[in-house]
Amino acid sequence: MKNLIYALVLGLLIYSCSSTKERSMGASNEVAQNDTVSDTVRIANDSLEYEIIIIDPGYSYFLNAVARPEGYHSQSYLENKNRFLVSDYNQRVREPFRYNPDIYTQEINYDPNIDYGYDVNYKLYNYFVYLSQKYNQRFSVPTRL
Prior knowledge:
With 145 residues, this protein is mainly alpha-helical. It has helices at residues 2-16, 27-37, 59-66, 75-93, 118-134, and strands at residues 40-45, 50-55. Strands 1-2 form a two-stranded antiparallel sheet. The longest helix is centred in the middle third of the chain and has 19 residues, at 75-93. Mean pLDDT is 82; it is low at 21-37.
């Protein structure tokens, strides 16, 4: 009986010391690899001829792997948040000595009276969430995942 316990402990010790196998991460690994290939995200509504191009390494990965899925927030929720967030963002663009001009490069022309559609509002809101997390920025309206 004693020998059986020793053999069992020795077997567990050998098993636990073995090297780990490389596992495929599936879709999330593919997203991370694609992130290095294409770090540009286009936010557009072709019918309104409206377009924002975001060139920020990591945003496309954030949008595909970290952000809440499309449909989680309603369009009216996103529009209300974007109204305040765009205003804050544009104010920071106008004050380059107070805020980092590498983060706040260009103003966003966002008119709350225009229906840009769900996709534009979703990606724009998640860009603000990404900014607040990556660069530790705080806006007047909380950005949450």
